[in-house]
Amino acid sequence: RFLFLWTALRRDATLQMGCRPSKSGNDVSRWSGESETGLENIFQAYTAGRELHPALKIFSLLVKHTMFPVPCQEKINMSYPSLDSLDNCADDIGSQIYGMLGMQAAFQNSIDESIAYFEKDFACATNDYYKAMVASFMIVNYHRKKDLKNAKKWLSAQDGHVKDKKDQWLVVNQLRLEALAAELGEKWDDESILENVRFWHNEGDYPWPLLLKWKAFIEHKKGLDKAKKNLETSFKKLVSSQGFTIRTLALSVIAMLIVIAKEEGNTAEFEKWQDEYEELLMACTRRVHTFKNYIEGRSNDFNKAKTGDLSLWEAATLLPFNYS
After folding, report:
1. Taking a C-beta distance cutoff of 8 angstroms, is the pair 209, 215 a contact?
2. 223: helix, coil or strand?
3. For 17-44, how does the pLDDT look when each residue is reduced to its tens digit (9 = 90+)?
4. pTM score, whole prediction
5. Cα angle for residues 167, 170, 172 (degrees, 5° grid)
6. Measured between alpha carbons, how far is 231 from 306 in angstroms, rounded to an integer?
């Protein structure tokens, strides 16, 4: 569907008029190398002609430049006037639109608005794959709200729409909710997969490091020493990635290691992870200017992450939406 990357266009970007692409432009792979402005022009041309299928595909390229495509959201709404009549109706395009709006709201930390969009997305989704994906997004939203009851409801929904009970995102979400129960001081009555993670999920690339992060969170809450080892493994796997987005996820893991080092009064470890945090943050902000803008807009949280003045939960959820 839509992979939201840190690389982003300016929120104040202005859509400029461009030539309408020919019908052959429906093969959107030809536009993958377009500039930000070029994609905006193409997107506007398609929406002006109410050609929603290619417009949505162009949007999926455009969001690689943005986490907050507000002008695009307005264009999508204008171009699909029957959107309000889609409630509880199976409609692939409507589902994708609601999904994009839900993700945009989630990345802006407008969680209640995101939930409302994803509920409509779920109702419109036409197959198990998309319903499972939307249910996973709903779990993440309720997880961030610390609403364990509703998060578990959507975990059941996700479970009901996946064929493989070892589905990687189902496993990650199970650990997320077990971690939330630990954070809330509530008993986890469901099956715990903490000690059998490798049985449930084959070790490998992303989201394995994300799974390790939440496993470590639970272990630390239980007072288990292996929490730090799992966080360090998660860190190594994330920073070794060639993908910019995946590497940024290590910031949250480092923030957790800083919190733990500060709790333990381990000055050497504290300073070591502070240096790692600063080095990675500097590298990422130098590489992508809009990531730098994102950090600057949330400088209080990211500064506290470096000084260890966040709770472990706050460190674990430092990054937005499903990046945590």
Report:
1. no
2. coil
3. 222 233 334 444 444 444 555 555 555 5
4. 0.77
5. 110
6. 16
